[in-house]
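re the bet — no i am not wrong, look at it urself. input seq straight from the record:
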Amino acid sequence: MHLNSAVDESIVSEFEPEQVVIARGAVTRLPEIEVDGVDMVDAWSVIRREAQVGKNVVIADWSCDWSGLGIAELLARDGH
């Protein structure tokens, strides 16, 4: 495993891997909107149990990836 490394064709050829996984990291993203009386939290805060989430929750998934469904399942299992 090589971390924090630039990759090009010559490096991949040198190691002759069966697979290459490129993990670019993740950045928390909140939309640039405001809703009066509503707290917005990011998915990672929910996953790490840092956010205090109420009983009724709206999940907005701007990135259209796993996070919306994953957070919905997590919160449903917790009774939200």
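see?? The mean pLDDT is 84. told u. also Residues 66-77 form the longest helix (12 residues). so pay up
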